[in-house]
Write a structure and sequence with these properties.
Blueprint lengths: L18 H12 L4 H8 L3 H11 L12 E8 L5 E7 L6 E5 L4 H11 L2 H5 L3 E4 L3 H10 L5 E4 L4 H13 L3
Parallel strand pairs: 1-4, 4-5
Antiparallel strand pairs: 1-2, 2-3
């Protein structure tokens, strides 16, 4: 016995969630609404929301190579905990790593296990806030880094200024 289903541009074949619903879910996720909040608003399950986000977002597990100029910072994430973020200090500001916490041990393990000694030795500068633990981490894990810059407001503003002032003029 064969089964059939209607075909339409509104929904992918074999799926029940519309393209418009998926776009709405992704928009709300970008706004920082939780998966359960999005599920309540869109009248679908939290697991459907997570599945939509997972299908749309392609995470890289490792950058091709560790950049010479990095930015370190922390941000408030899930359940008001502080997480660690590392990004390129160059123009793109692409994310190198996001870690679930900002503990020195977690950060050190991440860079020691995922980056070669040669990559870490090739580092030139790191932009950080006034967190003394970052300075100790940089000295122990990135021995060749010669410059450490401190941020006052936003890490990207410092990175843009530093790149335009020093790298572009070379």
């Amino acid at each position: 016995m064969k089964t059939w289903s209607a075909r339409t541009d509104i929904v992918e074949e074999g799926h029940t969630l519309s393209h418009q619903l998926k776009r709405s879910v992704l928009h709300m996720a970008r706004e920082g609404i939780t998966a359960t909040g999005i599920a309540r608003i869109c009248h679908c399950s939290p697991s459907s929301v997570i599945r939509i986000i997972d299908e749309a977002v392609e995470l890289k597990s490792r950058v091709a190579r560790l950049p010479e100029n990095l930015c370190f910072d922390e941000f408030r994430s899930v359940n008001s905990t502080m997480s660690f973020i590392c990004c390129y200090a160059e123009v793109s500001h692409d994310i190198v790593a996001i870690l679930e916490n900002r503990l020195t041990k977690t950060i050190r393990n991440h860079f020691m296990n995922r980056c070669t000694n040669r990559e870490r030795a090739a580092g030139k500068s790191v932009v950080v806030d006034l967190n003394a633990w970052y300075i100790k981490l940089i000295k122990s894990s990135f021995a060749a880094v010669s410059s450490v810059f401190y941020k006052k407001n936003r890490i990207h503003e410092i990175c843009k200024w530093w790149v335009t002032t020093f790298l572009i003029s070379i």
